[in-house]
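Handoff note, outgoing to incoming analyst
You'll be picking up this chain. Sequence as last confirmed:
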Amino acid sequence: MNASELNIPGLDLFSLYQYLIIFFIASIRISSFLISAPFFASSGIPLQARIVISISITAFLFPIIKVPDLQQIELFNLFMLIFSEIGIGVSVGLILNILFASAAVAGEKIASTAGLSMSSMIDPQSGGQTLVLSSVLSLFLISCFLSLDGHLFLIKLMIESYVYLPIGYTLDFSEVSKIGIDTFGKMLYLAALISLPVVGGLLMIQCSIGIITRSAPSLNLFSFGFPITLISVFIFLNLGVVPIANAFSDLTGMAINLIDNILHSPSKRSF
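Most recent structure output, in case you need it:
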């Protein structure tokens, strides 16, 4: 029995319950994306802020999002619908994480070549220990990504996905897995592209140091070799700021095109 049957002014609790369920289903895709995507999933952004962003976007889109009639959906199919929405958001976020890992991989390669593998710090993105150069390059990538409005483009793509991938339809995850494998290859290529100039320069420096110590065995390699290598790292990184920024700009465009291709890939009904 509800308030209308008792002739008591107030809310129809059953209708309110239905609206809340529909709102929850409509928010799953955006919420899953914000939880798993780089930058948005950073420990520097509180969970409460991500919840507010998700609710705000869903409230803005709620009048135009088409949700299937829940009364005609069986319980099992309802769970399938929820998991498919989670899968869409998480798939987009994880593939972005794979692509953005190129900066961390490049930093680890440069650090290992320069003998800085022991220098680590708390990564503000993951909250764990990571190499200093990896953290610096990752933060540089995030800065380039935000300066190019990459986060706004991604949110726009997720909003538009409700038009050509409405609730009740899901991605062909076999195709998404193929895109993920291809993205892993692109990540390794970008990491090599970013680290190759610095690693190549360090290799030349270390070969020169080796020739010097071979000619003068009495010299202490550690006393002057490591400081020269350390200074060379900063010089090469300083000279490579613009090329690295251009590479990160290309990575941002690649990420946006990749997510656009994923969300436009063949879809099917989730139940």
